[in-house]
Structure formats: structure tokens, C-alpha cells
Give the backbone structure.
Amino acid sequence: MEMDQEKPSGQTEEVYSVWALPPDDVGSRLKEIMSALRSEFDGPAFDPHITLVGAVRLTRESAIRRLRSASGSLRPYTARAAAVSRGGFFYQCVYLLIEPTPEVMEAGAHCCGHFGYETSTPYMPHLSLLYGDLTEEEKEKARKRVEELDKEIRSLTFEVSSIGLFRTDTQDKTLKSWEMVEVVNLK
């Protein structure tokens, strides 16, 4: 604890993630679905995103520097929904599976490389719609509800033209400590 006090301000390591962000019109459409799911199944509110880099521990300064570096050579790319799915843990409760096209996979690998992020599981691009610890039956009900709320959701296609750095303490399941640090537009 004392070491943290000796570090210059802003040098404490925290947990950050890098998100690919949908354009505003798509974000609004997704937020409506997410809000309806939360009113029915509970869970915390969060912004629609496709995670490019999962939870990585860095200083804020280093994380911002890496985001800017990664965005400098990353071009806008297309993301297409492949299915509405349900997962096995809190942060992948109900989500849109994103088609793992070469450009989607390369964007993930590119950003992970800049952040020195390595994981033992292969990258599975997805856009979460609901976080929660639900039973399999509840997850399936929520998954079906997504398709009722937006019958065209499985054909959703959008351009990712911005990525963001977010402070995401994964121990905080309320997400109240989560914050957007910086968003960069891709060119």
C-alpha cells in the first residue's frame, strides 16, 4: 500500500479494456434492446461494444499511449452479427456473436499486440447485450427476447470507426467504477 503512495499521481496500475464502438445510430438501437433486457432480467448498464483487448493491468498513461499507437495504423472495418448467443459467465451472458471475418480478427490481434495482451482462449468477437448470472433457462429466454425485440438483429452490419479505452475493474459487477478514458476515431 505504501508503494502506491510513493508513485507519482496517475502511475497506479488499473484494469483497462479496449472496445470497438458502434456508430451512434447502431448504439441507440442496441441500447434499446439492452434496456429492455435489463428491465426483464436485471443486470448492470454498460455501453454497447465489441471487446478488442480484455482486462489488462497498466498505468493510465501507458494505456492511453498504447491506445493511440494502436489506432494510428488501424483502419475502419465492418462488423456483422452472426447470431444471438448465450455464454457461460457473467460478462458473456447474452450477446451478438460477431462474424469472425479476417478484418475483425486482425483488428483484435492488432490491438492485443499493442497492449501486450495474451490469452489462452481464442478471440471470440461478440457484442454483449446483457451481463448477469442467470440460469441456462433464463439465458435462453433472454436470447429469444432479443430476437422478439429486434427481428432484424441477426442481419445487423455496421462500420467500426472508433475504438475506446475504458477502465474496467472486472471485480466490480455493478460496473459503477467503469469509465471511458479516451475514444479515438479510426482513419
Observations:
- Residues 1-8 have pLDDT under 50 and may be disordered.
- The CA atoms of residues 13 and 59 lie 4 Å apart.
- The helical segments are 2-6, 24-41, 60-72, 102-115, 136-149.
- The longest strand covers residues 50-59.
